[in-house]
Design brief:
The chain has 453 residues and is of the alpha/beta class. It has 14 helices and 20 strands. The structure holds nicotinamide-adenine-dinucleotide.
Amino acid sequence: MQEVGSGIFPTVDLAVSAAEEAQKHLRQLNWEKRETIIRALRQTIRKNAQVFADEAVKETGMGRVEDKHFKHLLVADKTPGTEDIAPRAFSGDRGLTIIEMGPYGVIGAVTPATNPCATVMNNSIGMIAAGNGVVFSVHPRAKKVSMHIIDTLNKAIVEAGGPNNLITTVLEPSLENTDQLLAHPGINMLVATGGPEIVKKVMSSGKKAIGAGAGNPPVVVDETANLEHAAKSIVAGASFDNNLPCIAEKEIIVVDYVADQLKKYILQNGAFEIKGNQVDQLKRIILSEKQDEKHAGCTVNPKKYTVNKEYIGKDAKEILKVLGIDVDRSIRLIVCETDSDHPFVQEELMMPVLPLVRVKDVAEAIDLAVKVEHGNRHTAIMHSKNVDNLTSLARAIDTTIFVKNGPSYAGIGAGGEGYTTFTIAGPTGEGLTSAKDFCRSRKCVLVDGFSIV
Ligand code: NAD
């Protein structure tokens, strides 16, 4: 077999057949060995967390090294493993029935440029814990670091006594190779983490598919909030990895009565405000307008803009430099007041530029938050001490993740309870994916036996 690196193959066919062979081998190993493999993956991710963070930022030109490092440690420590797929049992007069969670076989997983390492590592732990092999289709912009990770993870699996090539990919990622992977008969399940196009593609593939798509999370602040805490949380969440995460705060909606005070605290905690012409100038730099047929006639978001890739995931300092403003690196975020129709509010910018919209009261804030989330049902954040207000937004917006009184990343287990994932599946409904979502359920019924009740 023409293997280029551990798990890296020149063609989709070879990548799939190697993963198929490895997955058959994995199924023959006992449970204890599978747990040893998962432990080895965690250890190697922890050991290489810094290297992968450095390489990802260098190759993609997006994000912050220290935040990616943090994410990698989070993956190692808080991604659920084999414990996630414990069997269920029913015991009674007619015997014993168990429901066991078994693998699909080989999964085709598509990963984003914005979060190349954490997605590959998090998916690998969950998919292998569930007994699968996986063929990754990585973003061409992050191919080197993705391949380095795949090679490293495979070596850790082999050292732990598992099969080689449980995780594979192709040497030259491309849209054509992704299409081949999606249609390949050896692929039993698809998981896409990315924008709307790829999510739509996997959902119309005819195969079992998980789609984890785009978001545009609003953060709402009402007049009862602890404003200093809200400001610190907003800066921390919105500037984390330069706003690349799909869950990161993308627009502030604040009740007018407390808006000045909130903004004062935001500016005291690592943000810089731009105004008037500077906002218009930035708009011209980071967005270009296009008339999109798909959105013509749509009243909510009639115009679509293309976000200039050159600025996605860049430091606030670098973006400000283009406007002729010099700040030190302690400035992590740019804020600006806009109206609610502004494209900074409507579009998923994925850079540390956060618009602030004033509204007259919490009812208006909730209505607007629902509108600008565009029905993605992804993530929303609210700062409030009023339980009724929190409940009203949670019900109205009905997102997969709803964070109260903390930064958005509390929703994926960083500073909030619960496990972590980097594949948040709103469109297909799995939510925060983990090993249990990469399984088929099998029911085994023993009639009139083994029940001692
Ligand atoms: P992207 O959609 O451009 O690419 C994602 C992946 O899909 C890449 O591997 C890309 O090569 C592939 N792809 C895209 N279009 C394709 C097509 N037409 N045919 C075949 N393959 C295709 O997104 P990106 O810039 O890499 O990532 C950012 C997007 O991902 C944002 O919208 C963000 O919100 C979303 N995201 C979602 C989650 C989640 O868990 N829901 C996590 C991370 C990122």
